[in-house]
Amino acid sequence: MSAANKRTLIAAIGDEDTVTGLLLAGIGQVDDRGKNFYVHDPKAQVSVLEETFKAYTQERDDIAIVLINQHIAELIRPQIERYTEAFPALLEIPSKEHPYDPEKDTILKRVQKLVGE
Amino acid sequence: MSENNQREAVALTNTKSRLKGAQTGHSLLAKKRDALMIRFRAILKKVEEAKRKMGKVMQVAAFSLAEVNYVAGDISYQVQESAKRPQLKVKAKQENVSGVTLPGFEMERENSNEFSLTGLGRGGQKVHKCKETYAKAIETLVELASLQTAFMILDDVIRITNRRVNAIEHVVLPKLENTIKYINSELDEMDREEFFRLKKIQSKKKKGGDTDNDTSEQAEYTQDQAGGADILDQGKDDDVIF
């Protein structure tokens, strides 16, 4: 899997606090291809979010993991449910105001479906 | 007739060997599926565990960020603007489970500090602590991401393997068995026909001048024998005397 070896970055889509924390740990990269993190303002358009998600998951080939806040993932849930690729891995993470809810997680839903069967 | 018979026999052996191959393949694939399933179950368990752990870890991390905000003020703008080069990266690694490569991620960390100026005025220690907490949180996240990727790929592979196992079991094997049955019945039929034919000939021979036939056949036989034993076996030549 040589395609996987090129992917070294962690991308983040989230609210201000989450992204700040992740950046502080040192995941951020800014170059001529743009940033690998996106702060979603609650007042901003969902279409921007959709485009960013698409860019991180489909257009860029240097991202290995996409972290997205769960409450923001809720805004583009259909798009996330349609996303089934292995690379980059999509991970829903909790945010400060919104505790983690396993019921909503697309992956966990699949897990539960498989265990339940 | 006998040529036809031979051809059928060859087809029978061919089909039989194909059946054997299909059976071996079936058992191999079933074994592969079982091995994958075992791994899959283990990963499922780990995924659920890791997801729960992530919830806790992220909570702690968010709290430490709140502490930073309290001590050092809002640093989000500063952090977002000064991020240029990643210090935390992931490296892909691979694992082989019965012929399936499962990718995984490993966190790689550089020791340089890009935000050395953040919190310089006040709250530097808290900022540093927050950084460490988040780095640890990301380690958990990376682990979870690799589990999840493995889960997705295994899910796919298991589905494909299952399909193959079922295809062999319900389509290929019955087809081959049917073919063998058909060829066998056809061969039997031919045997019966041949037997019947011989019987018929025998009865005909008995009816019509059998002695006549027999003598002529014997004559032919002896002639053949004589023809076969010529030239070299003709005995000594007479000596030639000048």
From TrEMBL, chain A:
* Its membrane topology: Peripheral membrane protein
Cross-referenced InterPro entries: ATPase_V1-cplx_f_g_su, ATPase_V1-cplx_fsu_euk, ATPase_V1_fsu_sf
Output the Gene Ontology terms for molecular function.
proton-transporting ATPase activity, rotational mechanism
Species annotation: Wallemia hederae
Output this protein's name: V-type proton ATPase subunit F
Subcellular localization(s) per the UniProt record: Vacuole membrane
Entry keyword Membrane:
yes
Asked if the record carries the keyword Membrane, the reply is: yes
Please give the subunit comment from the record: V-ATPase is a heteromultimeric enzyme made up of two complexes: the ATP-hydrolytic V1 complex and the proton translocation V0 complex. V-ATPase is a heteromultimeric enzyme composed of a peripheral catalytic V1 complex (components A to H) attached to an integral membrane V0 proton pore complex (components: a, c, c', c'', d, e, f and VOA1).
- Keyword list, A-Z: Hydrogen ion transport, Ion transport, Membrane, Transport, Vacuole
Explain the purpose of this protein.
Answer: Subunit of the V1 complex of vacuolar(H+)-ATPase (V-ATPase), a multisubunit enzyme composed of a peripheral complex (V1) that hydrolyzes ATP and a membrane integral complex (V0) that translocates protons. V-ATPase is responsible for acidifying and maintaining the pH of intracellular compartments.
Q: Which Pfam families match?
A: ATP-synt_F (PF01990)
Tell me a GO cellular component. proton-transporting V-type ATPase, V1 domain
Annotated family: Belongs to the V-ATPase F subunit family.
Automatic annotation (TrEMBL), chain B:
What this protein is called in its record is: V-type proton ATPase subunit D
Q: Which UniProt keywords apply?
A: Ion transport, Transport
Species, as recorded: Wallemia hederae
> Per the record, where are the segments of Basic and acidic residues compositional bias?
233-242
Taking the record's annotation, the residue ranges forming a coiled coil are none
**GO terms for molecular function, please?**
proton-transporting ATPase activity, rotational mechanism
Q: Which family does it belong to?
A: Belongs to the V-ATPase D subunit family.
Task: From the UniProt entry, list the residue stretches annotated as the region Disordered.
Answer: 202-242
Tell me any Pfam family this protein matches: ATP-synt_D
- Is the keyword Cytoplasm in the record? no
